[in-house]
Design goal:
It contains 13 helices and 14 strands. It is an alpha/beta fold. α3 packs across α4 and α4 crosses α12. β10, α8 and β11 form a beta-alpha-beta unit. Helices cover 39% and strands 18% of the residues. The strands form three sheets. It has an eight-stranded mixed β-barrel, surrounded by seven helices. A three-stranded antiparallel beta sheet has the order 1-2-3. A three-stranded antiparallel beta sheet has the order 7-8-9. It binds 2-phosphoglycolic acid (PGA) and zinc ion.
Length: 418
């Protein structure tokens, strides 16, 4: 075991051109680690606080210099010269140093960047690949998660041309990441051709690299996905299934779901989702209801939990207390795991274990604002996520993760679970 010599951070830019943090950690034996943190656009209200400067003269208030200073001037002097045997020891120290319930003093972005950089430094110290270190930390056998690959986008990721946020494809029968990406590429090209024929759209993409034509309705997005799968020569449902991130909190106002020129109450919204699940090859519905509409979620759970993943993102925010409540009240059966929603690896692992013990499926997820860092792929493999959701196959901040999964499969010889 060796002590921390230094932690430091600088402000870098994410895939939307917005500031975020890159942190470095150096241990006394010379091992080092670096990591950068992502950032969401459709964030949940219960997420830990991402500290932004609020200075309108820099990056429209989105600068991260305060968070950077918190790493360099507060966290560094506090950890310098200390030994932390485990990730949990460091994370607990950082959480106590912050002292707030939602990491608002130092910022979840500052804390997570340090947490991840330390994780990489520890992996280096042990001469382990990051995924193997993460697996050991969690007491799990590593395996590759199934990618959920973004095809179409709407909502907050595409200027709101249609209500629902993201539609993904999943390949249930495919046994490798390599083949998954080949098929995804076929379907993506067919979808791009369809977008061009039907909507006169050039290849313009949304935040996560998905296509964002001017669909007339949310359902048109689902229908077009099925058409693209068929046009690419695959069987919808058997070869290529769909998942949808409705991100319903984004269009919920005054108790109504404002979708496709309608203002639905919760039971009408559940009816709509059930109709989609019956008519399209959907295996997962993420955030089908508003993050505060627990009653609506329970209705949806009763209706569809036996058939599809009722997947909580904004509802749960990778927060153990919220996951516990959802388990106890039959509100969801799957959790999206976004480490920056909670702000440390240790708390994310707690959320993961709680959900897994309840028999839930886990989707390890990127954010809509990402960097070229690829730690998420190692996390997905090391913690043996059922699925990994990192966006489309068109932008390098996404491909950094897919390419790392290809490496883990072909060089580290990990296999897809299931
Ligand atoms: P976000 O989107 O990173 O903008 O929150 C991803 C998601 O909602 O799953
Ligand atoms: Zn989501």
């Amino acid at each position: 075991m060796s002590e921390i010599l230094s932690v430091s951070a600088l402000e870098i830019l994410d895939s939307r051109g917005r500031p975020t943090l890159l942190a470095s950690c150096r241990l006394s034996n010379g091992s080092t680690g670096q990591a950068s943190v992502p950032s969401g656009a459709s964030t949940g209200a219960a997420e830990a606080l991402e500290l932004r400067d609020g200075d309108p003269n820099r990056y429209a208030g989105l600068g991260c210099l305060k968070a950077v200073a918190n790493v360099n001037e507060t966290i560094h002097p506090a950890v310098n010269g200390r030994e932390f045997a485990t990730q949990a020891d460091l994370d607990k120290f950082l959480i106590d140093l912050d002292g707030s319930p939602n990491k608002s003093r130092l910022g979840a972005n500052a804390i997570l960047a340090v947490s991840l950089a330390f994780c990489r430094a520890q992996a280096a110290q042990r001469r382990q690949p990051l995924y193997a270190h993460l697996a050991q930390m969690a007491g799990l056998q590593p395996s590759l998660p199934q990618p959920m690959i973004n095809l179409f986008s709407g909502g907050a990721h595409a200027g709101g041309q249609v209500a629902i946020q993201d539609l993904q494809i999943v390949l249930p029968g495919v046994s490798s990441i390599r083949r998954t990406l080949e098929v995804a590429s076929d379907v993506f090209r067919a979808a791009a051709a369809l977008a061009s024929d039907r909507f006169g759209m050039r290849l313009l993409t949304a935040d996560e690299g998905g296509l964002a034509p001017a669909f007339k309705s949310s359902e048109a997005m689902l229908r077009s996905a099925v058409e693209a799968i068929e046009a690419a020569g695959y069987r919808p449902g058997e070869d290529v299934a769909l998942t949808v991130d409705v991100a319903a909190s984004q269009f919920h106002a005054a108790g109504r779901y404002l979708i496709d020129d309608a203002a639905l109450d919760r039971s009408q919204m559940v009816d709509l989702l059930e109709r989609w699940a019956r008519n399209y090859p959907l295996i997962s519905i993420e955030d089908g209801l508003d993050e505060a509409d627990w009653t609506g979620w329970q209705l949806l759970y009763k209706r569809l939990a036996d058939e599809v993943m009722i997947l909580g993102d904004d509802l749960l925010c990778t927060n153990p207390a919220r996951i516990q409540r959802a388990i106890a009240t039959d509100t969801a059966n799957s959790a999206l795991l976004k480490v920056n929603q909670i702000g440390s690896l240790t708390e994310a692992l707690e959320a993961y274990k709680l959900a897994k013990r309840a028999g839930w499926k886990i989707v390890i997820s990127a954010r809509s604002g990402e960097t070229e860092d690829d730690w998420l792929a190692d996390l997905g493999a090391g913690w043996a996520g059922d699925y990994i959701k990192v966006g489309s196959i068109t932008q390098s901040e996404r491909l950094a993760k897919y390419n790392r999964l290809l490496f883990l499969e072909q060089v580290e010889a990990l296999s897809l679970a299931g």
